[in-house]
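Protein in question reproduced for absentees:

***
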Amino acid sequence: MRIQTARFLFALALCACAATIIRADTISGTVKDPAGQLVPNAQVEITGDNLPAPIRLTTGPDGKFSAPDLKPGKYSVRVTREGFDPLMTAVDLHGAIDLQLALILAAQQTSVKVTAKSSGYGNSDPLYVQLRNNGLGDTFKVEICRSDSTSAACISRLAR
């Protein structure tokens, strides 16, 4: 009986040691939009010193992702989805972690491409061209003076 108990305790200790040696951590999370709605089909990329290549995942219909069997260490998690700004977060992994990630709507961008050519140039109106070529005339200085029994004031202006 003592031998069986000793073997059982030895096996239990061996399993406990093996579990700490082959311990695997997990980065998981949920991706939401600014309104708190789940974001399916978002691209998640996890990079880190312990990885030979980035881990690429896609969120499910519930906005969730999971990367199991990772070693403890520092990782970067990058989330992208069309219509949203990319999101990057750093993770110092020691055990399982469940990230709650909120994407921000991307700024709207509009571009206009004009393919037709105009028949004239800007400011090609005939009256404008005549005024531009002839000038606007001479410049005069106008002074307006007023006085009363207690003070006098003059205002000077340039007029064309």
